[in-house]
Write a structure and sequence with these properties.
By secondary structure, the protein is of the alpha+beta class. It folds into five domains: about 180 residues, 2-Layer Sandwich (Beta-Lactamase); about 80 residues, PAS domain (Beta-Lactamase, 2-Layer Sandwich); about 100 residues, PHY domain (Beta-Lactamase), CATH 3.30.450.270; about 80 residues, Orthogonal Bundle (Helix Hairpins); about 150 residues, Histidine kinase-like ATPase, C-terminal domain (Heat Shock Protein 90, 2-Layer Sandwich), CATH 3.30.565. The chain is built from 17 helices and 27 strands. The strands form six sheets. Strands 1-11-3-2-6-5-4 form a seven-stranded antiparallel sheet, covered by helices on one side. Strands 9-8-7-13-12-10 form a six-stranded antiparallel sheet. It starts with about 25 loop residues before the first strand and ends in a 10-residue tail after the last strand. In the N-terminal section; belongs to the phytochrome family.
């Protein structure tokens, strides 16, 4: 058939072609759809009468076999649990090979010519199948099995060439083994693109293990009537050996230089692993018995390959689990698993056979091995978070996310697991770009001519393509290992969180006990100190009986007792703060600042103090507690500005959106910011007690009050130039009518 005589075919419609309901059968046989209950023939191929040498088109099964033998055997099969019916039956036209299978539209019965010789019967072929089974069981590896399979199918069928190829995850086929007589060219080690066998065709290969096309130039025999009287739909020929095939595929065969073909499916765990395909340059018919033998052979090959695949998977799983156990044992004693991973880079990388890895947690990025930059990893994490997948794997990140092309040499392949439901926290593994040359059977990117006539790689000569932006693909075991490791890390984080929660609870209990102890001691010490001061004052009243040294001693006792009393009062206030409820309401901070200034004016008698009190926005909190904070901060400013001829105390505030800020600033002695962390600790002092009096509790008490208001407090200072104490308070909830 010349190219110009070929019909123009819609390439875009190829993948959507209705290959299960082609509307016709191949003419090397004939087909009938029978209601086995009544014997009525519901549909039939147009060639049924001619093929069976009948005078008229049969309407009942009895018209085909007046003896009723075929009907009896078919009814017995229908009542059995056998999936298929296969018999050689003597009809009026002579012996016929009859096959049948069930469908919702009726029993589909197919007729073909029986074997030409006794040597081609299944009984005669059985010893060969037995020998083949023994050979494959002793095969050393997968290559030995595939080589034996193509040799045996070639010997059984007589095709010019038989090859076995496997599919990858994307449907690309690679020829693993081949045998033949040299008439057709060799395709060993070449690749065929996934478009050669679209997804729906691969699914049909999975459901129907064997398909024969004796002559690519055949004219199909149509099904009559076209629609089933049962459901009004075209006849589903998915399970029929005679099913007519796509015109696109027939053109493909002619382009390949083959006029006949047969395919045997290789299934592993129910999935299509590969095909054994026989081809001849001329039409070539394989009889049903030999096809049945090839079907058995295909099942043997499937079992042997599945056994090898499962064994390799099991070995890979064991190796991966061993690495995971070793890595987790290294992480178990550490508090921070991120540090544990970085400290064990070899185990971390070997877990999924990666060349680089990274962990992103809380915005921090840690890396080992060959990886993109930290900024690129952070951008990748943001992109992954938008995808929302717990486990992500690709061998070509740039094909999914174009910015990845910039770092493809370091990370073309990425395997990532999410370790947080809220944040872009991930553990990632990277594989670098592997630039490699792939040899195809013809150029897979040019399936048609300019005229639109289908030319699926019209030239099937080896065509080499350089593959870039891809790393080595991740295996199912590696992806499963990463997912298992994700679960282990989440358990690790949960366990650490439980330990921290338990520790927090223990600390809270201890704090409550300490508060109770402090309250008890402080409360009990107040009375003795008052007594000391009282009796010392009585002694001072008898000055006539005391010399100067004695009066000095008594004054020292009074001063010490007063200081100790103030310390006890502060400790009591500090311990009580944890017990007292915080009553929140609107607080006039300007009024509170004025009250504080008036209360401390007595302490500033004889000093020059300039007060600068600005407009203070209102606060939301406990007025009595905030008064204590203001008192402590202003008192602190007055105390440390005492050496100045003019002390300047500034009180200010401003609205900062969700919070309101207030500050107290002085021009006093200041402090070194290197020690700012000590400023709010209990009994922490940055100056000598001899220079500036105080108990060292005031700022700690202020911080605790602000903390209970869920605010913040900070200090800024410079030696000799003064200090600023600033605190913020959250604003009231707008729904609270006590707010502002």
């Amino acid at each position: 058939m010349s190219e110009s005589a070929q019909p123009k075919l819609d390439l875009d419609a190829c993948a959507a072609e209705p290959i299960r309901v082609p509307g016709g059968v191949q003419p090397h046989g004939a087909l009938a759809v029978v209601d086995l209950g009544s014997g009525e023939i519901r549909q039939a191929s147009a060639n049924l009468a001619a093929f069976l040498k009948l005078m008229d088109r049969p309407s009942r099964l009895d018209d085909i076999d007046p003896t009723g033998e075929l009907a009896t055997e078919l009814k017995a099969w229908l009542e059995s649990d056998e999936a298929l019916f296969l018999r050689t039956v003597q009809l009026a036209a002579g012996p016929q090979q009859v096959a049948a299978h069930r469908s919702e539209q009726g029993a589909i019965v197919e007729f073909e010519a029986p074997p030409a010789s006794e040597g081609e019967t299944l009984e005669a072929l059985y010893p060969r199948l037995r020998r083949f089974m023994g050979a494959t069981e002793e095969a050393r590896d997968l290559r030995a099995i595939t080589d034996a399979a193509v040799r045996e199918v070639w010997a059984l069928t007589g095709f010019n060439r038989v090859m076995l190829y496997s599919f990858d995850a994307e449907g690309v086929g690679t020829v693993l083994a081949e045998d033949g007589d040299g008439i057709l060219p060799s395709y060993l080690d070449l690749r065929f693109p996934a478009s050669d066998i679209p997804a729906q065709a691969r699914e049909l290969y999975r459901l129907n293990r064997l398909r024969l096309i004796p002559d690519a130039n055949y004219a199909p025999s149509p099904i009559e009537p076209a629609l089933s009287p049962v459901d009004g739909k075209p006849l589903d020929l998915s399970g029929a050996a005679l099913r007519s095939v796509s015109p696109i595929h027939l053109q493909y065969m002619r382009n390949m230089g083959t006029l006949s073909s047969m395919s045997i499916s290789i299934l592993v765990d129910g999935a299509l692993w590969g095909l054994i395909s026989g081809h001849s340059a001329q039409p070539h018919l394989v009889n049903p018995q030999v096809r049945t033998a090839c079907d058995f052979l295909g099942q043997i090959v499937s079992l042997q390959i599945a056994s090898r695949v499962r064994a390799q998977l099991a070995a890979d799983h064991v190796a991966a689990k061993r690495l995971e156990t070793a890595l987790l044992s290294r992480l178990a004693p550490v508090q921070d698993f991120q540090v544990g991973l970085v400290d064990n880079p070899d185990l971390w990388l070997d877990l999924v056979r990666a060349q680089g890895a990274a962990i992103i947690s809380g915005g921090a990025v840690s890396v080992v091995g060959q990886t993109p930059s930290v900024q690129e990893i952070q951008l990748l994490a943001s992109w992954l978070q938008k995808r929302g997948e717990a486990t992500f794997a690709t061998d070509s990140l740039a094909s999914l996310w174009p910015p990845a092309e910039q770092f493809a040499p370091d990370a073309s392949g990425v395997l990532a697991i999410s370790i947080s439901q809220l944040h872009a926290d991930y553990i990632l593994w990277f594989r670098p770009e592997v630039v490699r040359t792939v040899t195809w059977s013809g150029d897979p990117t040019k399936p048609a001519s300019d005229t639109g006539i289908l030319h699926p790689r019209k030239s099937f000569e080896a065509w080499k393509q350089q593959v870039r932006l891809r790393g080595l693909p991740w295996t199912d075991v590696e992806i499963e290992t990463a997912a298992d490791f994700r679960n282990a890390i989440q358990n690790f984080v949960l366990r650490r969180a439980e330990e921290r929660a338990e520790l927090t609870a223990e600390l809270e209990r201890s704090n409550k006990e300490l508060e109770a102890f402090s309250y008890s001691i402080s409360h009990d010490l107040r009375a003795p100190f008052r007594h000391i001061v009282g009796y010392a004052e009585l002694l001072k009243a008898k000055e006539a009986a005391l010399d100067d040294k004695s009066r000095h001693y008594i004054q020292t006792i009074v001063d010490a007792a007063l200081t100790a009393g103030r310390l006890v009062d502060d400790l009591l206030a500090f311990s009580q703060l944890g017990r007292l409820p915080v009553s929140r309401a609107r607080v006039d901070m300007r009024k509170l600042a004025d009250e504080t200034r008036r209360a401390l004016e007595v302490a500033t008698e004889g000093r020059t103090v300039r007060w600068e009190i600005g407009a203070l926005p209102p606060a939301f909190g406990d007025a009595s507690l905030l008064r204590q904070v203001m008192m402590n901060l202003v008192d602190n400013a007055l105390k440390y500005s005492r050496p100045r001829d003019e002390a300047v105390v500034t009180i200010g505030g401003e609205d900062r959106g969700e919070v309101t800020a207030y500050w107290v600033r002085d021009n006093g002695v200041g402090f070194d910011m290197a020690y700012v962390g000590k400023l709010f600790g209990v009994f922490q002092r940055l100056h000598r007690i001899e220079d500036f009096e105080g108990t060292g509790i005031g700022l700690a008490l202020s911080k605790r009050i602000i903390d209970r208001h869920h605010g913040t407090i900070e200090a800024y200072g410079k030696l000799g130039e003064g200090a600023t104490l600033l605190f913020t308070l959250p604003k009231a909830d707008p729904s609270d009518d006590k707010g502002y």
